[in-house]
Each structure stands twice: as C-alpha cells, then as structure tokens.
Amino acid sequence: MIDAKFIMLHLLIVQKEKVMGALKEAHPVDRHVGLTIRRLRKARGWSQEILAEGIGVTFQQVQKYERGTNRVSCSKLMDICEKMQVHPVDILPTPQWDCAPATVCGWFEDAQWIYFRNPHLLRELGRLSPLQLKAIHAAARAFS
Q1: Is the whole model's pTM more than 0.70, yes or no?
Q2: Closest residue by Cα to residue 86 from 41, 142, 131
Q3: Closest residue by Cα to residue 65 from 37, 99, 28
Q4: 79 FRET partner, CA 20 to 30 A, in 28, 35, 36, 87?
C-alpha cells in the first residue's frame, strides 16, 4: 500500500516545480537557438566545456542553452557568435512573417541622415507631446 505521506510529499514537490517553472516547456525559439548552437558546436568538434570556457559560463549553462531550458541573452548570443565565428542570423530562426531588415528600408536611411546631422533633434522631439508632434508633422507636410 502506498503511504499517504509519500503521495502528499510528491504532490507538494510537483506543485512547487510547476510554480517555479521547472515543468514549463521551452519556447520554440529558445529550443531552435539551443539546437542550432549545439549543431554548430558539434560541427566544430567542440565539447560543451570548450564553448563554455570561450564564452565565460559553465558547461552546465551551455547544456541549458542547448536544451532551451535557459534563454540565451543578446550579449551572450554575441559572445557565442564571436567564439564560433558566425553571424547571429545563422543562429536565430527565420521569421514567420514577411519582413525586411530595417537597414534596407528608405525610412531607416532618412532617420540615420537626420540623426547624424542633428543628433539633438530626436532628443528634443522625444520631449514633445503627441499634439505638438502632430502640429510639427502638419507643418512639415506643408513644405512638401
């Protein structure tokens, strides 16, 4: 016969794990990033220890990254990319929506041009209310 104390203890542990997220499934993006890191690491013949040492974490952390258990921060992703000599795009999944990098959009070049010639302008515009911005926008349209 199963002891009632054992069942209660088991239920308490399971509940605690659920609350703490231990039973939470990895997000598909985190799983993809982790599997890609593992594939690239193995293609180089590296152990988890070698990669871990190169990016300043423990091999256990690399295991968690590769499983998708722990998310890879942007700064750590850049460290991993530098160590493996790959571009972040090689690790991240392809977006499932139609998009293009901002650098190929006309407005991005315009924004850069304005920012580099008048860096104070964007700072000042950020201080304006929506109504004030609308008035400036209307005035700018009148010039075109």
Answers
A1: no
A2: 41
A3: 37
A4: 28
